[in-house]
Amino acid sequence: MKDLVLSLIAEGGALAGVPFSLAAPLVMVAFGALVVFGFVLPIAGITSWLERRVWARIQSRIGPNRVGPQGFLQWLADGLKNLLKEDIIPSAADKWLFSLAPYLVVVGFIATFAAVPFTSSLIIADLNIGILYITAVTGIVVVGVLMAGWSSNNKWSLLGGIRSAAQIVSYEIPAGLSVFPIVLLTGTLSMQGIIRAQGWAPWDWFFFYNPFTFAAFFVFFVAALAEGNRTPFDIPEAESELVAGFCTEYSGMRYLLFFLEEWGNLYVIGAIVTTLFLGGWQVPAFTDNPMLLAVAQFGTFFLKAYFFVFVAMWVRATLPRVRVDQLMTVCWKYMVPIAIVNMLGTAAWMLFVPETLGRLVQFGMTGLGAVVVVVFFRRVRFHLRRANLKPSDYYYSPII
Amino acid sequence: MASFDTARGDPKMYFNFGNVLVFLVLGLGLAGMMLGLGRLLRPANPLAQKLATYECGELPTGHAWINFNIRFYLIALVFLIFDVELAFMYPVIVVFRDAVLAGHGIAAFAKILLFVGVLAIGLVVVWAKGDLEWVKRLPVEAESDVREAA
After folding, report:
1. pTM (2 d.p.)
2. What is the ipTM of this complex?
């Protein structure tokens, strides 16, 4: 991005004559605002609408379909409605912490986008500690959630807040440990560096690199869902037992900010998983046109990342919520040991497995993955055919 | 070591972290803007009943700033140890590939194994002591179980 600033202030550029110390912050703020308002907010909003439509489809309901085509503008209507709602701060609450909590949650979530890659050349800040930075700033969200739960001075909020703190800190361990196999293989923490170490073909992805990275992917994804308070791990806001958990006392815009984080965070999870395990924006070099290549890379990355957003919706519409004790057992007794084994296993793999054998394993695992996908779609087709009944089979008619 | 040497003294690094600062400010600004804009548009009509703590429609009894379960404290302690482990592991993990390429991968692997081994023993001890059990039984119940078994 520094090159971009230099080209802008060069002779004939848009900012010609402006000194670098002034032009650089201007361009940084402009690009940051473009990403936040042009990408993050629409993605979070559209995800909220799409999620409700997908659940409705899975659960044989209709879902929001009134505002705009297919209800597409529902997210704007929801935002506008929340903007106009009265902001209630309970008189018993700690006013300062209560008002501060949504800020922390939003800052922790927006800051991750500084290191999320879009294409090979488009990333706001290719930090040399990218993945560590993302793990660190998402930790700010926990503080916000705990602060919201404690400051509300409400029993539901308190229960939600401490549950959330216990859950998020526990699942940070397997999520952090599952990053290690990838960092071992690449020797860098930079998001772009990790993507560059992979290839466009599935057998060059770290997902299929060896059995340990394969397992690390699942540990990471499940832990990321738990960190994002997503079903089946949504016990902090479990609406059927804790009203709304840590955000029970929040209303209007402040309430919306918590959910902005939850929906936007889904894309962050997808982007991290895509970067670490699925080859990121890698596409085959099919053209010399850098613009066309950038569009293809952006599309590839976005589709892969959004696929995981879809999986999270799918999981939420399908699975029931787990209990607190099950949640802790799964984390500490299963996922942490598995994650440790994955890390050590990958290190041993790098030392002891010769390259040709490793290559064969990559191809073999990709083949196995392809077989699983084919079997899955055959199963889906089978069920679709079986469900393809005549209208008389599902419409009640007194004549037939 | 290569990945860190390239970063050291690189002006681009300050530029990148400047962007991080911009994003932190943008996050604050976004939340502030949404709440500030709402302040101009929304009604403000506070009533004592409206500002009461929500307790399913009943009058709230007492407040919620009370002692909570010790289990959360135990989890926090275990987490702290493992999180510090994560922080200590990052530098080693990053240079492991270079160590393998330079030919002393076995030594590096042995050191990682030693460090993780000590922590794994810690996890086993915590597990065996029952501190990972969420559902705790009263000591009386556990005693009666022992008596029944004997």
Report:
1. 0.85
2. 0.79
